[in-house]
Amino acid sequence: MMPVLEQRLAHLFGFEYTVMLGRARSGLVALIETLNDIDNTPVPVLIPENICPALVTAIRAGGGTAITVPVSPENGLPDDQTFVRTMDSVEKPGIVSPTHLYGFLGDYPQTIKLARKKGWFILENDTNGLRIQSKESPFGDALLVSFGYAKPIEIGSGGALLTNDPLLAKVIDRRVSSYPLLDDSARVLEEETMLKRRSLRNMQGTSDQVLEQICHTETALSRFRFDHNSVDLLLTKLDQFPNDRARRCERRDHWDQALAPLDKILQPVTLKQPVPWRVIRRIPKGRNHFAQSLREHNIDAGINYRSLWRELPSHYLNGKPSSSDIWGDTVLNLWVTKDYDQAHIKQATDILMEAADEL
User: Fold this and answer.
1) What are residue 181's DSSP bridge partners?
2) How many other C-beta atoms are found inside a 10 Å radius of the C-beta of residue 206?
3) Can you give the pTM of this predicted structure?
4) Distances (CA, A) of 42 to 96, 149, 197, 274
């Protein structure tokens, strides 16, 4: 019988088995290592072109090959046919990982159909917890969820891999149990690499040597087992999640109402967003001007969704980079945290309106 936390997560996400992880990416490493044991050649892993770079270094750590899938310039997610075309271009089946980036829900019927036909493992990446008590069933052979920094279910660390395959759960759990705990020194290194990446995004170009150094550190930070001292905190966060999700949706709706006069300039994403991670807007012209205007008034504004081909040495990736990184160059994200009440949102909106008038 599974422990209480594992039972709770399995029930909430609609699966039978749960494997706890020190970081969500550690589940990806363990899965790749497991598949490599079956076929001793690198496992191809299809991921969105704009996903967190640490997923690529985790794929590399596990012995896999990261293959990028281009994303829509309008919503930042790969569409169904793009996944299909990329799968068709890869000779050996591996892992295909549709990801609910930013809390948006993508639709992948043809991807699932082709993956089943050709023997691909479907790993649904649900970093924002969209599938919790969802009316729509998960579609993957397994699902990854994160409880790390700035996630909707946040305890600062941890993740889970969920599956209906008892043998897979047993094998992954055994492998992850051999990984070290995430200690303070690892957390310091993680923060240092995050800050280095953030500073590099403000530069026009970065040498492969500098990126290689960052990636080398990240690769060593790929394998961690879950700290069971966090069980009670995570159970509490799961209890609080319905209210937290409602608050996030309320904040998003306040933003949408306030920004409505600017919709033609700060363009909304039309996909469903059951669990808002941020309020995401596309600004085809002058994105940096709007972001800088907010920052000059000490209001957070995120712009860090660049293509992986700009975040990693080229030899870390396979596939074809997009001819231009339209999504990475136009996206702006705004916060839905507790401190963004209606007054704070109005202040930010007024600044954005002034910025629009200046263009």
Assistant:
1) 225
2) 16
3) 0.94
4) 14, 30, 27, 35
